[in-house]
Fold this protein.
Amino acid sequence: MKEITVLTFGAVTDAIGKSNFVVADVQSTGELIQKLEMDYPGLKNLNYAVAVNKQLVSSSTVLEANATIALLPPFSGG
């Protein structure tokens, strides 16, 4: 069974209600996002970036077992 660790930050954590959890049996980032948006409808209205093992991705990416996914809110500089 493939398990993926998901880390969330900022508004994404607020929408999901937790900052660190495991999701099983997802094959890609697209499938993961689809599952999370079904489970947590508040995510659909948020802009966030997806990183796989600390690398930002912009399209659906195949996930390896034990990958770590970070869901990152927009960054603002100062």
Q: What stands out?
A: The helical segments are 10-16, 29-39. The chain has a mean pLDDT of 93.
